[in-house]
Amino acid sequence: MDGIRLIGFMCLLSFCGCLDGAIIGPNEPVEQIIQSTWNNLELNSDLDLTTPEIIEKAGYSTETHTVITEDGYILTLHRIPGGNGSLPVLLVHGSFNDDSVWITLGKGKALAYLLADQGYDVWLANMRGTTYSKKHITLSSSDWKFWDFSFHEEGMYDVPAMITYITNMRSQPLHAYIGHSMGTSSFYVTATERPKFARMVKMMINFGPAVFINHMRSPLRPVLYLIKEFQSLLRVLFHDELFPQEFYNTLKTLLGCNLNFYRAEMCAKNLLFNPLGYDPEQLNLTQLPFIVSHIPVAVSLKTVIHIVQMIESGTPRPFDYGAAKNFLVYKSVEPPEYNQSSIANIPTAIYYGDNDLFISPIDVKMLYDILPNVIDMYEVPWPNFNHLDFVFGNDAPKLLYERVLKIMKEKYSNNVLTV
Ligand SMILES: *[C@@H]1O[C@H](CO)[C@@H](O)[C@H](O)[C@H]1NC(C)=O
Ligand SMILES: *[C@@H]1O[C@H](CO)[C@@H](O)[C@H](O)[C@H]1NC(C)=O
Ligand SMILES: *[C@@H]1O[C@H](CO)[C@@H](O)[C@H](O)[C@H]1NC(C)=O
């Protein structure tokens, strides 16, 4: 078994080798390669810190809460508590991320801190399977069964559990749910399949929403297809976890992102710009080591396959198990689409970037067309704004957060809103 695992692992690495070559490309100008001056970097000391440790270091108090979902996952919420009258907001990260993305930009810039500075009660979600949410009441994260989920289950169980926990504790609705990428897909599932829970949220804010995704322009698109193609092999190798940390470490080395063989510009290009959109002006290279030491984090194989299915079908719908099992699960040969007419009528704001290779403006427009109550639809006014600039963009505070904070305050701060 170990032999098979090793051979398969090497095969996958060679795919990544292809990926690496394809990503760098033969025509790229010779790069200035910044060799590791790593040990001298001041930020070095932050790299191994957990989210609460980083928050404390930034001078905020923090609490850790755990929430158990109906299907037994034990999720971690990190909180920067507001005062007694404060309005609770929940920030939900995307796939391959955890809640560290909301604090990466640091004090005075990162959205979590800006919200805390404005007096909000800030809650950071960690979805099942990610860094701080790898526990289950009966399963271990090395079990296949643990990884048998996609954003569908996150929307059915994780989002309702977190919303319920916060609203019970604060005895008031959640003022806003702010989701990035897959953090919006799961909310879409909640809003259509469990609208009762979505209605406990007064406002939904989408950053690069991943609901319609079939105009994805990223070079990762063929890689996602490849993962779907080789799912049986991956299942044997990794027990449905994509990927174990040692795999990411090897991948980071190939991409120039291993901090012992660090090549800043190559790493930025491979890890962020080529897959997500070229935007060097928004990336603070000083923060890159922090970024690469925190992402990517594992997702489930089922998540990736579900993403590919959504690209292929062009419409958001539950997981396609194939005709026979579909018939057992859904009583139909094809999975039924999420019921758009039952979607909770929540005030929704949508923010997107023209150079977001994952979420094309065409797909964003499709989402806009089906949502019943869009209060703000805004293309971030920076032509190169990419999929991760929503959380890592150096000018995100000016280009995006200012507007978001204003929307949250002006229209919905007075509790008179009825959904
Ligand atoms: C907040 O409320 C709690 C419980 O009602 C109370 O003990 C505490 O003093 C209050 N804190 C502030 C800052 O008002
Ligand atoms: C880049 O990040 C570092 C560390 O967070 C910060 O000190 C510096 O001011 C940032 N540079 C810019 C241009 O924002
Ligand atoms: C979709 O939701 C609407 C409104 O709740 C309901 O009337 C309708 O029966 C649902 N359709 C299906 C196929 O479940």
Structure annotation, total helices:
16
Radius of gyration: 21 Å
Percent of residues in helices: 40-55%
Are there runs of 5+ residues with pLDDT below 50, and where?
A: 15-40, 413-419
CATH architecture of the largest domain: 3-Layer(aba) Sandwich
Fraction of residues in β-strands: 5-15%
For the largest beta-sheet, the strand count, sense and barrel status come to: 9 strands, mixed
Give the tally of β-strands. Answer: 11
What is the H-and-E element order?
HHEEEHEEHEHHEHHEHHHEHHEHEHH
Cofactors, ions and other ligands in the entry:
2-acetamido-2-deoxy-beta-D-glucopyranose
CATH topology of the largest domain: Rossmann fold
Query: Total domains, how many?
Result: 2
Shape: globular
Spatial separation of the terminal alpha carbons: 55 Å
Structural class assignment: alpha/beta
Mean pLDDT: 89
Q: Tell me the name of the CATH class of the largest domain.
A: Alpha Beta
CATH superfamily caption of the largest domain: Alpha/Beta hydrolase fold, catalytic domain
Question: What can you see in these coordinates?
Answer:
The protein contains 16 helices and 11 strands. By secondary structure, it is an alpha/beta fold. It folds into 2 domains: 81 residues, no CATH class; 255 residues, Alpha/Beta hydrolase fold, catalytic domain (Rossmann fold), CATH 3.40.50.1820. The strands form 2 sheets. Strands 1, 2, 3, 4, 5, 6, 7, 10 and 11 form a 9-stranded mixed sheet that branches. The longest helix is centred in the first third of the chain and has 23 residues.
